[in-house]
Structures are given as structure tokens and as C-alpha cells.
Design a protein that fits this description.
- This protein is α+β, with helices and mostly antiparallel strands and 150 residues long.
- The chain has a single domain (2-143), classed as Electron Transport, Fmn-binding Protein, Chain A (Pnp Oxidase, Chain A).
- 27% of the residues lie in helices and 47% in strands.
- The protein has four helices and eight strands.
- The chain has helices at 8-17, 53-60, 95-108, 115-123; strands at residues 2-5, 20-27, 30-37, 39-41, 44-50, 63-73, 76-88, 130-146.
- Strands 1, 2, 3, 4, 5, 6, 7 and 8 form an eight-stranded antiparallel β-sheet that branches.
- A hairpin with a 2-residue loop joins strand 2 (20-27) and strand 3 (30-37).
- The radius of gyration is 16 Å and the shape is globular.
- The protein starts with a strand and ends with a strand.
- The model has no long low-confidence stretch (mean pLDDT 89).
- Bound molecules: flavin-adenine dinucleotide (FAD).
- Residues 34-37, 47-50, 52-54, 109, 111 line the site of flavin-adenine dinucleotide.
Length: 150
């Protein structure tokens, strides 16, 4: 098996195809990684979340990364890492972007569809704060494996 870099176009195709990854953020030299769903657009990833540790951390340190992969088997896989900046889509400043994120995520995010998420937003239950955020992409890289026979 060989491991080779892929082009930026190939990275973007993977982000389009696989709307799920692992978000990495950090605070006070401590990394934190969680699985998330996202909706991809050329310069952004949109995410729906409830308030909690990752959002608190990103509010303090907006530098993040997201790793996305497609794994056929141990010798057939592709992996992309995006670096970017967290931007919380608060109302009323980002009402338009929030609605846009909602529409995009409705098509791709299973997380968005869980009853808790769907129920809490309309009734504005303060126990769970719905958060929409955008990751403004600042860079990306990708690699893939090539089985020896190819
Ligand atoms: C397939 C999949 C898709 C998901 N998509 C989304 C999404 O689109 N948006 C979203 O907000 N969340 C998503 N989640 C859940 C997400 O990974 C977090 O569990 C959740 O968002 C809570 O994160 P938080 O930082 O707010 O934790 P908090 O609720 O603040 O919890 C804090 C504590 O719980 C622990 N904890 C939190 N999450 C996890 C975890 N996943 N595994 C182990 N320990 C954990 C932390 O270490 C921390 O100590 C998804 C999870 C899965 C498995």
C-alpha cells in the first residue's frame, strides 16, 4: 500500500460526499474531539449543535479543525483535514446565515433530525440552547491509500 496526497478538488469532493467528521478544538493546551455532522459549501462548513463544552471552548478559542474520512478497508481509504475558524451564527446579526445553515443541514444532517434537537428549538427551552455555527475554511489537505496492485 502507498499513501499519496490528493488534490484540493478531491478534498472538496469528499467533503461534499461525506457530511460527517470529527471536530477538534482546544483550550488551555487541552485538545477535545467530537463527532459532528456538517453541511459543506466551498468556503464553509455549517453545523447545528446544542450548547456545551465544544461550543464554550470554541467561543474562547475559535481555531478548529475537522477530519473527515471514507474508509473502504485498511488499504483503501481517503482522509481530509480542514482547518478553520469558528463563527457562531447568532441572531439577529446572522439570521439569514442561520436560516441558510438550517436549510443545508436539513438535507445532510441526521443529528438535526433527532427529536430532541427538533423539539427544543421551536419551544425555546432554555435548558438546551440550540447553536448554529459556521467554520470558515482556512486550509485543507488530503491523503489516500493506494493498494499495491494499482
Ligand atoms: C454520528 C454522530 C453525529 C453527531 N453529530 C452531531 C452534530 O451534528 N452536532 C452536535 O452538536 N453533536 C453531534 N454529535 C454529538 C457530539 O459528538 C457530542 O457528543 C455532543 O455535541 C455534545 O458535545 P459537547 O461538547 O457539547 O459535550 P457536553 O454535552 O458539554 O458534554 C461534556 C462531557 O461529555 C463528554 N462527551 C461529550 N460528547 C461525547 C462523545 N461524543 N463521546 C464521548 N464523550 C463525550 C465530554 O468529554 C465532556 O466531558 C454527534 C454524535 C455522533 C455519534
Amino acid at each position: 500500500m502507498r499513501i499519496v496526497p490528493i488534490s484540493e478538488d478531491e478534498c472538496r469532493e469528499l467533503l461534499q460526499r461525506v457530511p460527517f467528521g470529527r471536530l477538534g478544538c482546544a483550550l488551555n493546551d487541552q485538545p477535545y474531539v467530537v463527532p459532528i455532522d456538517f453541511a459543506y459549501e466551498p468556503e464553509h462548513l455549517f453545523v447545528f449543535s446544542t450548547a456545551g463544552k465544544k461550543v464554550e471552548w470554541m467561543r474562547q478559542n475559535p481555531k478548529v479543525c475537522v477530519q473527515v474520512d471514507e474508509i473502504g478497508n485498511w488499504s483503501n481509504w481517503t482522509s481530509v483535514i480542514v482547518t478553520g475558524t469558528f463563527l457562531e451564527l447568532r441572531e439577529p446579526q446572522y439570521t439569514g446565515q442561520r436560516e441558510h445553515a438550517r436549510e443545508q443541514l436539513a438535507q445532510s444532517s441526521k443529528w438535526w433530525r433527532i427529536p430532541l434537537a427538533e423539539r427544543r428549538e421551536p419551544i425555546e427551552d432554555l435548558a438546551i440552547e440550540p447553536v448554529f455555527f459556521r467554520i470558515d475554511i482556512t486550509g485543507m489537505s488530503g491523503i489516500r491509500s493506494i493498494p499495491e496492485a494499482e
